[in-house]
Amino acid sequence: MSKVLLKIENLHAWYGESHILHGVNFEVREGELVTLLGRNGAGRTTTLKAILGLTGKRTGTIEVMGRETVHLSTNRIARLGLGYCPEERGIFSTLSCEENLLLPPKVGEGGMSLDEIYEMFPNLKERRHSPGTRLSGGEQQMLAMARILRSGAQVLLLDEITEGLAPVIVQTLGRVIRALKAKGLTIILVEQNFRFAAPLADRHYVMEHGQIVATVNKAALSEKAAMLHEFLGV
Prior knowledge:
This protein has helices at 44-51, 74-78, 97-102, 114-120, 122-126, 137-149, 167-182, 194-197, 225-232, and strands at residues 4-15, 18-29, 33-37, 58-64, 67-68, 82-85, 155-159, 186-190, 203-208, 211-217. The protein is an alpha/beta fold and 234 residues long. A six-stranded mixed β-sheet has the order 6-7-8-3-9-10, with helices on both faces. The two termini are 32 Å apart.
């Protein structure tokens, strides 16, 4: 069995005085793709941010590559091999597409080259000299994903990557995620589009009120459909 790259136990997290996560528990093994599912406000994005130390106070255990990180700073956590693609994308508008790609520091060995990235995202090669503000929403999302692939990160945290995108772009992102999984990368996907996430993931963690309330393996999706509908409204 592959090794555990991320292990979370009894994780609580706050934004100021607001207590958002209430004892989250889950783990992700090397090469797996898992999703965090749930309605808006369930705590999915906060879980990703808590892993990276981007919330306020955190308590509990967060082990990344076997190392306890709950008291580490964000930059030290990232350098253990994490890559984060935030929902807001974070594209620098005054930089070109290629300058955005080259900006993030390396956090590990084996990052993809520009040629490999352009092969995976041909749109970005065509737009490599375009300013960030000139890219479409779909191109900005591709750029946000591509940027972390250059860094050498082995665990990818992807937050709502399909939100607001045309179906043809969503299909492209699905193909990219399959290719990344085939390369052995480990992926945690926060996703509202269950139809997109369902065929990709090895395991689904369902969140509600800041807790994991159900775990559904890929093989059990059909028998758990009614339960998922109740939690997600899908």
